[in-house]
Write a structure and sequence with these properties.
- By secondary structure, this protein is α+β, with helices and mostly antiparallel strands.
- The protein has three domains: 12-141, no CATH class; 254-499, no CATH class; 532-546 and 560-781, Ribonuclease H-like superfamily/Ribonuclease H (Nucleotidyltransferase, domain 5), CATH 3.30.420.10.
- It has 19 helices and 27 strands.
- The strands form six sheets. A six-stranded antiparallel sheet has the order 13-14-15-16-10-17, sandwiched between helices. Strands 4-3-2-1-5 form a five-stranded antiparallel sheet. Strands 18-19-20-21-27 form a five-stranded antiparallel sheet.
- A hairpin with a 5-residue loop joins β8 and β9.
- InterPro entries: DNA/RNA_pol_sf, Integrase_cat-core, RNaseH-like_sf, RNaseH_sf, RVT_2, SH3_retrovirus.
- Pfam families: RVT_2 (PF07727), SH3_retrovirus (PF25597).
- This is Gag-pol polyprotein.
């Protein structure tokens, strides 16, 4: 077993390693107290802050690595560091505050909370230590003891009550006008698959779940020389977040992971050039500037009379690899296009972008035609577009030419940030590809095709990312050489990671997997749900979030955070996860006024995602034509009795397009609702049929696309244009399906409800039916 051995009193050398660290921390704490001119009663706060700082300092014993990096596997972010003992203003969120009272109160900054993503501050009025995430600190430091309490007994008692562990957390980086640190602890509730009703898990979720994601409102005034982050609009305040927590060590561990993720973000030029990676940032900025000069992007001139020069700024980011490791520092000079004047500085701005459905179709084509997928990246793509208007820009920061400070840049070519940059770049690339013998499809102007004898080359353009599919590697290399004539093209090899989507090509089985596992894990990490208990379905069956419940049980939550979560989930839906389509579509209806029940339902979706992060679209060669499935849930919305439509189409054994959408017209019967849904599916079928005809691949040509439907009444209404009292009111636009059926462009087949895989696009289903539908969509874990 383990036996404890105590040291002899007053003999620290018997425990040398620990005692030496204690000395280091005490010496740091002594300096902190001395600089801040604070009494010894603040020793615990000083030691805690010293430990926090020490954990983020390089250590020789770890090979000049910080303890934080050694433990978490990533470099710490220190942009949130404040000066110990400096003056700080805390947002006053008391509901009793009058309109004319100050919006903030002056405090003394003491350090960083270990059980919440917040700062610790001394309140001179109440003579207590508080925690708050909403603070502004004075840039310069002036030691003062005006606010230090004279009666130290009260404070000593408070210090012992709030004494924290030496295990430290990383506060989130500032991303708004005020320092905004958000709590992210998550308590898992027991699994209960049979539970139904609008309350969901509300009776088992604590109020802290709401406070975790509330975003405070900032004052309209801005004191001089305050540390702030990016500018933001005022946000609504919902619940106070200044509180003490009894979080366990497990909560703190989860907190550390969330805080580490939050460290990722843009930094300013001043922060970059004064930080530990300043040489890397300098090199990145210099390379960007030199590339712009070599490209003859501008010429210096005097600003003409009655003309206006727009500003520019440096956008600095750390680019990460698929595994999360640092790839490189990236600097980009961006014009502030928001200052451009329409009609003078720009005219047209539209630029086509490849559709994600086209990307899935390209993957399906590669499987069915035995093509290999490659990936290309055009570096600094936008600077290749030629401007048609005269645009003046001020010289970039840190690169103003001495003696020519009054001159401005007359832009000859587009740069990032201009409203017309995307359009000009696409025109340039489109011209280049057409000269190479590639023709865009009418169904997607970013999908290009080239044929050479029996060989074929497909290219899908998404801004500066090109996905290439071909059965002849010579065609691929010819394309690369052509692009290199005018652009700086980077070959990324076989398609493996693009637009946040992971691709796995299996040449032996001639199959391709598409998944967003890394994106899903990052999303869970961001919202503190990485360790949550998985759910079997995205939402509880028969869930109705429209019902009003008591005000005390259904408080408002942060609209900003709710919309951020729904928007993040939306990218999963439009890219690789049709199984989430209905849930996200339904929850998005409450974006403008989210309540606690909506937030809990959104977290239920995250729990489902936590258990299915490796869910992938599995494309396999089948030789079968495109098939469609359509369904509806009649009068599913209890507020307006509108129905929910859903459809998806399968190619190469996996879904290539899908939609879950609330109908815009009230259906008077289930037949009418299915008929409307069938019309929406027909529109997509016509689009897919046209694309297949444009591709002109013999094995993929189809005379008609078959759509499966589980409502015989809707099929009869389509095939037999009868006119009677139950159908005479249907809008003429929904009879579009009749025309396409009569023309032979589509056909509708009956499928029993138990085999209707589109069912989960119209409602939240029970576990076994959900699994069946997911498999029918070609989704499989990998």
């Amino acid at each position: 077993g383990i036996k404890r051995e105590y040291t002899v009193p007053h003999t620290p050398q018997q425990n040398g390693v620990a005692e030496r660290m204690n000395r280091t921390l005490v010496e740091m704490a002594r300096c902190l107290l001395s600089q801040a001119n604070l009494p010894d009663e603040f020793w615990a706060e000083a030691v805690s802050t010293a430990a926090y700082i020490r954990n983020r300092c390089p250590t020789k014993a770890l090979g000049n690595m910080t303890p934080f990096e050694s433990w978490f596997g990533r470099k710490p972010n220190v942009s949130h560091f404040k000066t110990f003992g400096c003056k700080a203003y805390v947002l006053n969120k008391a509901p009793t505050r009058g309109k004319l009272e100050p919006k903030s109160k002056e405090h003394i900054f003491l350090g960083y909370a270990t059980d919440a993503k917040a700062y610790r501050l001394w309140d001179p009025e109440s003579r207590k230590v508080i925690k708050s995430r909403d603070i502004k600190v004075i840039d310069e430091f002036i030691p003062t003891t005006d606010q230090v309490p004279m009666a130290k007994e009260d404070y000593v008692e408070e210090m012992h009550q709030d004494k924290q562990s030496m295990s430290q957390d990383e506060p989130i980086k500032d991303d708004a006008s005020e320092t905004n640190i958000e709590s992210s602890q998550e308590e898992d509730d027991p699994e209960d698959e049979e539970q139904t009703g609008p309350e969901m898990d509300a009776d088992r979720e604590e109020d802290s779940d709401l406070k975790d994601y509330t975003t405070p409102k900032r004052g309209s005034g801005r004191p001089k020389r305050l540390k702030t982050g990016k500018r933001g609009r005022p946000r609504k305040i919902y619940q106070p977040c200044i509180e003490h927590s009894d979080s366990t060590e497990t909560d703190i561990t989860q907190h550390n992971v969330q805080m580490a993720y939050s460290a990722i973000g843009d930094i300013t030029v001043q922060e970059a050039l004064s930080g530990p990676q300043k040489q890397e940032w300098k090199r990145a900025m210099f390379e960007e500037y030199e590339a712009l000069v070599r490209n003859n992007t501008w010429t210096l001139c005097k600003l003409p009379k009655n003309s206006k020069a727009i500003d520019c700024r440096w956008v600095l980011r750390t680019k990460y690899r698929q595994d999360g490791s640092v790839e490189r520092r990236k600097a980009r000079l961006v014009a502030k296009g928001c200052a451009q004047r329409p009609g003078l500085d720009f005219v047209d701005t539209f630029s086509p972008v490849g559709r994600l459905s086209s990307l899935r179709i390209l993957v399906a084509l590669s499987v069915e035609l035995d093509l290999t997928l490659y990936q290309l990246d055009i570096e600094m793509a936008y600077i290749n577009g030629e401007l048609e208007e005269s645009v003046y820009m001020r010289q970039p920061e840190a690169f103003v030419k001495p003696g020519e400070e009054s001159l401005v840049c007359l832009l000859k070519k587009s740069i990032y940030g201009l409203k017309q940059s995307g359009r000009q770049w696409h025109k340039k690339l489109d011209s280049k590809l057409k000269n190479h013998g590639m023709n865009p499809l009418n169904s997607d102007k970013c999908f290009y095709v080239k044929r050479s004898n029996q060989n074929i080359l497909f290219v899908l353009v998404y801004v500066d990312d090109l996905v290439v599919a071909t059965n002849d590697v010579k065609l691929y290399h010819e394309l690369v050489r052509c692009l290199n004539q005018d652009f700086q093209t980077k070959e990324l090899g076989l398609l493996h990671y693009c637009l946040g989507i992971e691709f796995i090509q299996n040449q032996s089985t001639k199959s391709v997997f598409m998944k967003q596992q890394k994106y899903a894990q990052d999303l869970l990490l961001r919202f503190g749900m990485l360790e949550s208990k998985p759910k079997a379905t995205p939402l509880i069956p028969k869930l109705d979030l429209s019902k009003e419940i008591s005000i005390t049980e259904d408080v408002e939550v942060s609209k900003h955070e709710y919309q951020s979560l729904i928007g993040s989930l939306m990218y999963l839906v439009v890219a690789t996860r049709p199984d989430l389509a209905y849930s996200v579509s339904y929850l998005s209806q409450f974006n403008q006024n989210p309540k606690k029940r909506h937030w809990l339902a959104a977290k239920h979706v995250l729990r489902y995602l936590q258990g299915t992060t490796n869910q992938s679209l599995h494309f396999q060669k089948t030789g079968k034509p495109i098939l469609g499935y359509t369904d509806s849930d009649w009068a599913s919305d209890s507020t307006d009795r509108r129905s929910q439509s859903g459809y998806f189409f399968v190619m190469a054994n996996a879904a290539i397009t899908w939609e879950s959408k609330k109908q815009k017209t009230t259906a008077l019967s289930s037949t009418e609702a299915e008929y409307m849904s069938l019309t929406e599916a027909t529109k997509e079928a016509v689009y897919l049929r046209g694309m297949m005809q444009e591709l002109d691949v013999a094995s993929l040509k189809v005379d008609k696309i078959i759509i499966h439907c589980d409502n015989l009444g809707a099929q009869a209404l389509m095939k037999n244009p009868v006119h009677h009292s139950r159908t005479k009111h249907i809008d003429i636009k929904y009879h579009f399906v009749r025309e396409k059926y009569e023309n032979g462009e589509i056909d509708v087949k009956y499928t029993p409800t138990e085999n209707m895989y589109a069912d989960i696009l119209t409602k939240s289903s029970v576990k076994h039916n959900h699994i069946t539908c997911v498999q029918g969509m070609g989704l499989t874990p990998i």
